[in-house]
Prior knowledge:
Strand content: 25-35%
Order of helices and strands: EEHH
Number of helices: 2
Number of domains: 2
Shape: elongated
Helix content: 40-55%
Structural class: alpha+beta
Amino acid sequence: MPVPDISGNYTLYYAIEQTHNLAPSTGAINISISLVDILTSQGIGVNGFAIGILTSFTIVAIPLIRQKYLAV
Length: 72
């Protein structure tokens, strides 16, 4: 089920048909969706991926640069 693009309170209505093991049922569930929930469901995107790679590269590069230029 997709997450809405706009934050707010949503009502999910449901109906369960009778089967051999289940009794019929209907009802509603109130769901509150915040902006954080929407952003989380969309993933980190290209910008987040690029920042992650740049951060990883920097973490690896700093010790290598220090070792090369500060070696006695």
